[in-house]
Specification:
Layout: E1 7-18, E2 28-36, E3 39-45, H1 46-52, E4 53-68, E5 70-75, H2 91-106, H3 109-125, E6 128-135, H4 138-148, E7 151-158, H5 169-183, E8 189-195, H6 203-216, E9 219-224, H7 228-238, H8 242-249, E10 256-260, H9 266-275, E11 278-281, H10 283-288, H11 296-301, E12 306-308, H12 321-336, H13 344-350, H14 353-358, E13 376-380, H15 392-398, E14 405-410, E15 413-417, E16 425-426, H16 431-445
Parallel strand pairs: 1-4, 5-6, 6-7, 7-8, 8-9, 9-10, 10-11, 11-12
Antiparallel strand pairs: 1-2, 2-3, 4-13, 13-14, 14-15, 15-16
Length: 450
Amino acid sequence: MTEQTKKQVDLIIEARWVLPIVPRNKMLERTAVVVSNGVIQDLLGIEACKLKYSATKTIHLMDHVLIPGLINLHTHMGMTLMRGLADDKPLMTWLEKHIWPAEQQLLSERFVRDNALFACAELLSGGVTCFNDMYFYPQATADAAVQAGIRAQLGLVVLEFPTAYAADADDYIQKGLEARDSWRNNPLLTSSMAPHAPYTVSDITYEKVITYAEQLGMGVHTHLHETADEISRSIDQHGVRPIRRMANLGLLGPNVTAAHCVQMNDEDVNLIKSYGVHVAHCPSSNLKLGSGIAPVSEMLDEVINIGIGSDSSASNNRLDMFTEMRLAALLAKGSTGDASVVPACQALEMATINGAKALGLDDKIGSLEIGKLADLAAIRIADVETLPCFDPISHLVYVCGREHVSHVWVSGDLRYEKPVNQSGVFANIEPLELKEIAFLWQSKLNQFKV
């Protein structure tokens, strides 16, 4: 075939290894991913690709493994600059004595936008191409995501108590839906209803959330069974555990993503399974806040879909999906005494296709398949700390870290690149801007430092 008869495409990425995620545990060697119009057109051997396609740009990654962009299933992007503000505190003390007072004084659209842009940079540099958020001023987070060029599902947060953002539950809902209308046609952004948690949302408000979610075809993103205190409060106030309360109200369903699910008994797990609820497992945050260890093995045995989230930088203190994958696998093994639980391939599924399923986006992202969007991350395996490599799939979970991410594409557009022995470069974010943001808000947050 001559150059004139080859099919012209936008981008070809040639990699030493390609991990498509679907089918499970399959690794392709010396493979090219062909991209046009932001969509994967083909996956085939490098030599066969050279005969069939001609690209505007070809990238050679012979020391790399190419994977679907990671999906962070639970974030609060607007809290990023509160990283380290109130460490070593249990959840309710952390919230009520430190985080909420800081938010009461500083919360604004500018605050959220600056925090979210900082978080977008951290996520992209760690191979994340999509995040599932819940925070105030979602329009500000949307603006940051669009600037960074990262995909997001933005939760329209709902609470009962007033903040600088909204006066009451109805105000939260109205402002959230207005924000959603402003980005509805942006291909990077989708929306969910985000009632914060059972201890901050009333039955009446939950019923309104259910109505809007059903009428608008939106998912629901909420915290659930994060701590033992949450369970006790629910039993005292409502006579049932939170998950049972949600089921009685009609909230549970396959459009729901429940973050944490740490304090779970057999009935709770059965309810999650029977309603098809997705779980966002946040191992680092659960440990750091002393909330406990989620029964991931038991939930996987029941074929519950589990994705991985970081939670906020204020409670983690990193937005690092490589750490979360590794910890998810190790905690499951250590808590069960079974080294075969959550193998590396499953941890990678939790950070990719499972997250996509929870967001209702698995027809578009989460795996490298023809027809899906070209959301990709390349990880370099060529340095002392990553050699030798016997199994790239195992390496991604147990050896590699976010510092080994070299390229990140969203819809085929390069959003982050880290040349060998150089600092990373973002397509649309200036490092100087991030430093100015950090300096500005640290000076204002210092008064809340513990």
